[in-house]
Amino acid sequence: MKLKVFADRGSQPSRAVLIFCKANGIEFEEVQIQLAKGEHKSPEYEAINPMKQVPAIEVDGKFRLFESHAILRFLATAFPGIAEHWYPADVFKRAQIDSALDWHHSTIRRGSVGVVLNTTLAPLFGRPLDPQAAAEAEKLLSASLAKIESFWLKGDGPFLLGNSEPSIADLSLVCEIMQLELVDEKLQKRILDPYAKVRKWVEDTKKAIQPHFDEIHVAFFQMKEMIKKARAGAGSGETKTG
Amino acid sequence: MKLKLFVDRLSQPCRAILIFCKMNKIEFVEVRIELSKGEQLSPEFKEINPMQKVPAMKVDERFRLFESHAILRFLAGAFPGVADHWYPADLFKRAEIDSVLDWHHANLRHGSAGLVFHSKLARLSGRPLDLRAAADCEKVLSASLAKIESVWLKEEGQFLLGNSKPSIADLSLVCETMQLEALDEKDRKRLLDPHEKVRKWMDDTRNATQPYFDEIHGVLFQVKDKLKEMESDE
Question: Class assignment of domain B3-85?
Fold first, then answer.
């Protein structure tokens, strides 16, 4: 199967799909869709994904799929040689991973996106920052991180659901939490410091998927540096005239 | 497998699971958790679902599961005799259904549930309405209905993705749109009238799952009357 992955490495779910492919030796062609340049709104890309979001995949030039969790489930089951722990065949284990993936949308995803967009990234998309929306999103995110500590990380192993090896749920949720690297350091600490188990789980997940995890995050950390510089420039009192 | 379902029929994802079980002759015990009485917040229910939400499921008194899409996938895969069209074994068809189920959360679900809760149902549990939040959710709802028409419903087939038979995605999303019955008739018409394809798909899904669809949705129509009473008392 010839696989094309349409991604922006600045996008959390894009990174999860890219890392999964690399970690499992799945060959693919990466097509960069740069969100900051509005490339997701082009008619060509709309033909790939009518929702105009990344990531998306195309198989053999004819089967298209979007929504990162659907993509991860598809890749885990349609490609040979994928280790069982990513998305187990056992219906009970699989159901628990599905539960974490579903829970993610309205909790970690919603909270994290709300914080990062409304404190940092909105201007990149021509929108104003929104401190009130950011505060609401932070509440949701904190409550969700608390749930990861009290429920999802219960059990013997270091990964979600007490598993001893990472699943696609760990990959998806950790890539989402990584996005907090983009916000002001004080804010990042305020959000994550209370949750030692979460921080350990993020590190364990990264370790388990090296070197692919770090490799896919290189562009993301470059983006972080650019944003930090811009934030420092704005804070030094320079004003744009005209 | 002995199946227990913890549900409130006022909840859209609960209804989807109940209809699915009835359609597929899956035997279960229904344990009613009344949201308007705050029963989901009891310590007993927290043992079943630490997220304190419905629906939740228990199998053989030991395996617990929450999140309706995870439950629907589990039931489709774990019980014998479930027709393939609900959640096909073919990985490509299955992936497309997964895509709809995932899209649903931040789109139709967020829009519809938010609108109905913040403008109507909050009253049932004695909470204040939040019309600003309702207005935001209405925008998301309208955009989502438009996407269902332009992306998910095709020329061929009556169901999502151009399928000729309903899947768990049809069931989940139609139960969500049915929640709009709780709105004032004029608002419901205003939201749904522009979307003829959506209305037809709702009817087709309802017809394909009778008599259970109407049976399980009965409570929604009772609530409509109750809300009218509460509003006229003010």
Answer: alpha beta
